[in-house]
Write a structure and sequence with these properties.
This protein has 249 residues and is mainly alpha-helical. The protein has one domain (2-232). It is built from ten helices and two strands, in the order ααααβααααβαα. A two-stranded antiparallel sheet has the order 1-2. The longest helix has 29 residues, at 194-222. The radius of gyration is 19 Å and the shape is globular.
Length: 249
């Protein structure tokens, strides 16, 4: 029964992630969803700016702190190893939902390219950014990344396999294609409002901070293998270094 409950917990956490991820696509792009980054209007002025910055920073802190090995070692005193990743995914999804609920649109436009040749190009890039994120996750074991594999492995009482440094397509061009996808999706905007600019700017700042935190952990995990990989392959943009190798965390 306990093993079954772990599997169910992992599935529910993954389902919440999937729903929140799909909502995020609509939220940032002002597509379909009832509340997006630019509508409907709520609190205005400096208060809106502070609220938006606060909920994004809260998500970033949760997302980074809970991913650190030191936190995981402490956290697993209370959370079974089989559902540790699912719990991380659950908390990340809940904090993302907090962003959706608390966000206050800042709709004043910096640019509006609707009706120009640039608009369909930017919309295509927006879609490409999200597809890069999704495809990259499958290249490093999507279901393990989001906790389903660990919970299912516990349910079947299958031994855990050790993470290995492996090659995968996008990771031969950049070390962090998932973060590249977020960067592209954040900035590819036919209409750029003050709210969208705040979102994109804070996401970009988080990306560069997150790279430093993640790579510190990857060097500790894979040592010289990852150092050599980092020396060959650029972090975010696919130019500037010779392309070889890839990583999995």
């Amino acid at each position: 029964m306990k093993r079954f409950s772990f599997a169910l917990y992992g599935l529910l956490s993954y389902t919440l992630f999937l729903v929140s991820f799909l909502y995020l696509v609509g939220f940032v792009g002002n597509l379909i969803v009832p509340k997006s980054i630019d509508a409907p209007l709520g609190v205005r002025g400096p208060a809106a700016l502070l609220i938006d910055a606060a909920v994004l920073v809260a998500f970033f802190v949760q997302h980074s702190v809970m991913a650190r090995p030191a936190f995981k070692q402490w956290w697993m005193r209370f959370v079974p190893h089989a559902i540790e990743r699912s719990t991380y995914v659950l908390f990340s999804s809940l904090f993302l939902c907090l962003v959706f609920v608390a966000w206050q649109p800042l709709p004043t436009l910096l640019w509006d390219l609707r009706g120009t040749v640039a608009a369909p190009i930017l919309l295509t890039l927006y879609a490409v950014g999200w597809l890069i994120i999704l495809a990259s996750s499958f290249m490093i074991s999507h279901f393990e990344l989001f906790g389903l594999t660990q919970a299912w492995r516990r349910a079947r009482e299958t031994p855990e396999s050790k993470s290995a440094f492996v090659e995968a397509f996008f990771y031969r061009f950049v070390r962090h294609p998932i973060l590249l996808g977020f960067f592209v999706a954040s900035w590819a905007a036919p209409t750029m409002s003050h709210g969208r600019l705040l979102f994109a700017a804070l996401i970009t700042l988080y990306i560069f901070v997150g790279i430093q935190l993640e790579e510190h952990d990857l060097v500790k995990a894979f040592g010289i293998t990852y150092r050599n990989y980092r020396a060959r392959v650029p972090a975010l943009f696919p130019f500037g270094k010779r392309v070889q190798g890839a990583s999995k965390s």
